[in-house]
Amino acid sequence: MMQRCIQLAMNGFGTTYPNPMVGCVIVCHGKIIAESWHKKAGDPHAEANAINQIQNKEILKEATLYVSLEPCAHHGKTPPCTGLIIHNRIPKVVVGTVDPFAEVNGAGIQKMRNAGIEVKTGVLEKECRELNKRFFTFHQKERPYVVLKWAQTANGFMAVENQFNCEAGGGQKWITNEYSRQLVHKWRTEEQAILVGRRTAEADNPQLNARLWLGNQPVRIVLDQDLKLNENLNLFDKSQPTIVFSQKSKENLLNLKFIQVKFNENLAEQILTELYKNEIQSVIIEGGKKTLETFIQKGLWDEARIFTSEGIWKTGIGSPKFHGKLIHSKNIGSDQLEIFIR
Asked: In a 3-state reduction of DSSP, which class is residue 275?
């Protein structure tokens, strides 16, 4: 039943920020009588969605409620789920893992136990924590979950020396195939933000949106130390929220926020601290080598997703060096995708 909760929760991937993904199953006499998940922030939580499916609430007095994350005990945009569970006299609740959010963090479990409910915890706990690794990283480490991403040739080059003079006559030179690029756009709908450096913004003029996959658009982030980037770049079209990190101050505009930081050896820490303040739980670092190394050298990354093509370049900019544990590998057409964790 907890595995089913996790499966249901995944339906909310990319749509629940800043809330976690949660799935709920209600069982009575060995049969599932209701199930649901949290769909987006501000909407009812998974437990409420499942309970509200049941017309005859009397049956809940003989039911067991399974939920992947501890039910909330505080008033947010919606009432606390613990109150709803207690009100409906559900006698047993099975919880995957405790909620690390300071206003919950065991309070929901204790409140239910105080009301006489039998509460079992730690069922598929590792899997439930993995489900919400972004949420846990954000609340326990006070920074976003950081995903590094780049593409490289078979001989280790990730970019041409001067992308303004590449073989195609200027502009971006693709390394990966169309299927890998579509997957990247899917990832953009699942993470909360995407970050590049000034050189990538100048050379590629990226839109940093999800055009090849339907879903939420990420917050765009660019590093521009001296505010040298041309205001006509796609990044500044105000079509989606965009953050510019710079040493200089500038007045915010519609969908365009400027944050002042010092471009020194602590740049990565400053960026993640500011993103934490802005309630951004996850970010893809999709910049060039220098930007990626800013986070690698400080050990401020959680996952690296690397595409390797069959192409061979004679010269170019080499990919960053890092140490990680390979957890996944697969072929995407002619490309190979490898995923590492720190």
From this structure: helix
pLDDT, tens digit, 9 for 90 and up, residues 295-313: 999 999 999 999 999 999 9
Burial level of 28, CB count in 10 A (0-12/13-18/19+)? middle
Q: Which of 35, 47, 274, 303 is catalytic?
A: 47
3-state DSSP assignment of residue 317: strand
For residues 156 and 320, is the Cβ–Cβ distance under 8 A? no
User: CA end-to-end span of the chain, whole Å?
Assistant: 31
SS3 assignment, position 62: helix
pTM for the structure as a whole = 0.91
For the residues 133-154, what does the mean pLDDT come to?
A: 97
Phi/psi of residue 197, each to 5°? Answer: -95, 175
47 carries an active-site annotation: yes
Q: What is the CA radius of gyration of the chain?
A: 23
Calculate ∠ Cα 261-209-152, nearest 5°: 80
- Starting at the edge strand found earlier in the chain, the sheet holding 193-197 runs 256-260, 242-246, 219-223, 193-197, 282-285, 145-152, 303-308, 335-341, 325-332
pLDDT computed for residue 164 by the predictor: 47
Question: Checking DSSP bridges between strand 193-197 and strand 303-308, what pairing results, if any?
Answer: unpaired
